[in-house]
Write a structure and sequence with these properties.
Layout lengths: L1 E5 L6 E6 L2 E7 L11 H14 L16 H11 L7 E2 H8 L3 H9 L12 E2 L13 H12 L4 H10 L5
Parallel strand pairs: 4-5
Antiparallel strand pairs: 1-2, 2-3
Helix pairs in contact: 2-3, 2-4, 3-4
Length: 166
């Protein structure tokens, strides 16, 4: 396993590679980084930099999230949600033949957030739902604003309404 950490406009993150695939994206800076990161880790960092600059809307990286069959179905469905768009837990549940609560649980266990865009899953009636990443709903809101799925004003309105307090 090898890792690379990077600064983003939202939060520091660490990307982990195992056997030629990205297996994790964690919040924060890792003290266990490779002195000479692999080409895959450098490419992941490059793509994430482009994403945060607004110049990349779709990642092209080998991902290998480790989870149950159900979680893998949910994570695949998340990857099919286009940049700048959202779906509800219910939408995804209906698409894969599951329950909305089970979709929410799989979102919370996503080992590769951002690259597998669990931030694009919302609750019903325009509510944010949850977000297990560092910073919680503030991070989710920032990612949705970055992608244009929420305007800055909509994000501020959510914050003012208390919708980001969990």
């Amino acid at each position: 396993m090898s890792q690379i950490s990077m600064h983003t406009p939202i939060i520091d993150i660490t990307i982990t590679e195992l056997e030629g695939s990205i297996v994790a994206l964690d919040w924060g800076w890792s003290p266990f980084q490779e002195e000479n990161p692999s080409p895959l880790l450098l490419e992941a960092k490059r793509q994430l930099d482009l994403y945060f600059d607004g110049d990349l809307t779709e990642f092209n990286l080998p991902l290998n999230p480790m989870g149950t069959k159900h979680q893998e179905k949910v994570w695949k469905a998340m990857c099919d949600i286009p940049y700048g768009d959202t779906r509800t837990y219910g939408d995804v549940a209906k698409e894969i033949g599951s329950a909305a609560q089970a979709v929410g649980s799989a979102c919370g266990r996503n080992p590769i957030p951002i690259l597998i865009p669990c931030h694009r899953i919302m609750a019903s009636a325009g509510r944010m739902g949850g977000y297990s990443g560092d910073g919680g709903l503030y991070t989710k809101r920032a990612l949705l604003v970055l992608e244009g799925a929420l305007t800055v004003d909509e994000g501020k309105a959510l914050e003012a309404s208390g919708a980001l307090d969990g």
